[in-house]
Write the structure tokens for this entry.
Amino acid sequence: MQIIWHGQSCFFIKSKSQDKEINILVNPCDSKKLAKANIVLLNNEILDRKKLKKIKAFIIDSAGEFEIKNNFVQGISDNKNIVFVLEVEGIHLVDLGEVKHLENGLLSKLQNVDILILPINKEKFLNIDEATEIINQLEPRIIIASNYQESKEIKKFAEKVGANLKEAVDKFKIMKKNLPQDGREIIILNKKS
């Protein structure tokens, strides 16, 4: 699996399933990225929905359970946000979207999280203390921050949760067998235009 960050809460996840490439686009912030996607996940209102009518991708913008090309996606409603749980290449990935706070009981629905994508931005989304509380409850092996303003915000967050902070990369590549067995890692992705 390969994960690329396009800013805000937009991620492009490339996966291989039965020798076929699957491209999952989460929260596209512009319509240029849509052409390459097989699956589009929308947990907020960033993109004008009229632009979605022109694409051939499978679009998920609501709660429910879906299986597309051997990839499992579950959307869980959380107030005005949809939290997505994905099972891709045997890796359990949770994208909290642009959550401002989690509804009671939602964390209990999220189990065995390998990779957690969450927004770190005290002005608009989760502050470091709120994000730390979520991390301590879910215990993901890998954490990827979205929506953050400055990398020093992430460094402070890494110290608070006791995670190993990796050097910033353009693309994060991971296989199930390479997931950390002990401790946590925070991955910083460079924004790709």
